[in-house]
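User: Let's play a game. I give you a shape written as tokens, and you guess the letters that built it. Ready? Here's round one.
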């Protein structure tokens, strides 16, 4: 059996990589329980060779919730890396639901009556452990299927470990037809151990305090600095994230654990509008935005979208790390929109403050 998470955590502390955090240490106990249960070899069937072995008792999973930057994703990733079994998977909840919705779509196109069953069966094939990062339910189409989806996954013996910013009872809070969602909350509370990661420290903010968050000019040094920040946040992991907004798809080129990375042109040269930028601001806690150019009436559409993007990030208290051709006040010097840009420049300044984003709601 593998080394305990507690032991490996302590090694990281010894090495000076992580700070000892009592709330995180408390959360290691249930994770170690799950790891041990999953790694334990399946008992040999009793009562003769020909008796069919009963399906193994499913291992009770975990719902780890708490404020942002407390180390939920870090602990889950650490757990996922460490568990010594085949058939484990870690995926962002959003990407997972997109996969399910795409599967449903395909199954229905083939004429399946009960599309969820084959989709869940396919999903659970060979799967023993599913780690879902950032469970969050805002979409009614997701809200209406998660209950049965999770029932099918539990019935297939899949152990679910998930992180969330919210306590289960507050999932899909104020959502449409919420009464139909309540059985899912009961299911989660019943089938998963619910643990509050109540650390007082927001490590993500701590990492940025005192760090540069606005680089100008957008030269090689800026690129290297931003690459280093990205690596620090994500350890190099990252994949495109597609957000569904009013039936459209908005792609973030790189995303991992609440941190997105894009270039100005990825977000401001496409015909995106306020709803798209709000969806981005909701999905992301830190946006690394590279190569903001000088703006003018020449690139008025891009500039206008940039203003909308900054407003959305500002409203959402998203941490922005940017490289730009000039300081905020010098980005937009002539042409229609100069006046409006003053507010944007001032917001860009304010967002550079060390405390920016601390008050972001979960
Ligand atoms: N005990 C710790 N010591 C040092 N860094 C930590 C610790 N816990 C978390 N971090 C770092 O803080 C950042 C935020 O943690 P994360 O797991 O992403 O938070 P959450 O998922 O709760 O929002 C990550 O970069 C993570 O590596
Ligand atoms: Mg997280």
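Assistant: Ready! My guess for every position:
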């Amino acid at each position: 059996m593998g080394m305990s998470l507690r032991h490996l955590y302590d090694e990281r502390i010894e090495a000076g990589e992580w700070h000892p955090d009592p709330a995180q240490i408390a959360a290691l106990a249930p994770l170690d329980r799950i790891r041990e249960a999953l790694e334990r070899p399946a008992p040999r069937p009793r009562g003769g060779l020909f008796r069919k072995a009963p399906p193994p008792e499913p291992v009770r999973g975990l719902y780890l919730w708490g404020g942002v930057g407390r180390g939920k994703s870090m602990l889950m990733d650490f757990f996922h890396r460490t568990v010594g079994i085949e058939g484990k998977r870690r995926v962002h909840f959003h990407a997972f639901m997109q996969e399910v919705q795409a599967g449903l779509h395909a199954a229905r196109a083939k004429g399946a009556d009960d599309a969820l069953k084959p989709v869940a069966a396919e999903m659970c094939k060979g799967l023993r452990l599913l780690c879902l990062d950032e469970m969050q339910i805002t979409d009614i189409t997701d809200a209406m299927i998660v209950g049965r989806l999770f029932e099918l996954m539990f019935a297939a013996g899949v152990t679910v470990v998930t992180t969330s910013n919210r306590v289960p009872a507050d999932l899909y809070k104020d959502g449409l037809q919420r009464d139909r969602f309540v059985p899912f909350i009961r299911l989660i509370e019943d089938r998963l151990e619910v643990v509050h990661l109540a650390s007082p420290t927001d490590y993500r903010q701590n990492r940025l305090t005192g760090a540069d968050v606005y680089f100008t000019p957008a030269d090689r040094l800026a690129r290297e600095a931003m690459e280093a920040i990205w690596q620090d946040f994500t350890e190099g992991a990252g994949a495109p994230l597609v957000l569904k907004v009013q039936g459209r798809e908005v792609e973030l080129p790189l995303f991992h654990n609440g941190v997105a990375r894009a270039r100005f042109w990825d977000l401001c040269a496409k015909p995106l509008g306020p709803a798209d930028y709000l969806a981005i601001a909701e999905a992301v806690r830190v946006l690394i935005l590279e190569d903001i150019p000088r703006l003018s009436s020449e690139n008025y559409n891009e500039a206008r979208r940039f203003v909308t993007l900054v407003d959305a990030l500002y409203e959402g208290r998203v941490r922005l790390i940017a490289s730009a051709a000039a300081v905020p006040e010098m980005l937009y010097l002539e042409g229609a929109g100069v006046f409006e840009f003053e507010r944007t420049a001032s917001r860009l300044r304010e967002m550079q403050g060390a405390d920016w984003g601390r008050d972001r709601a979960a």
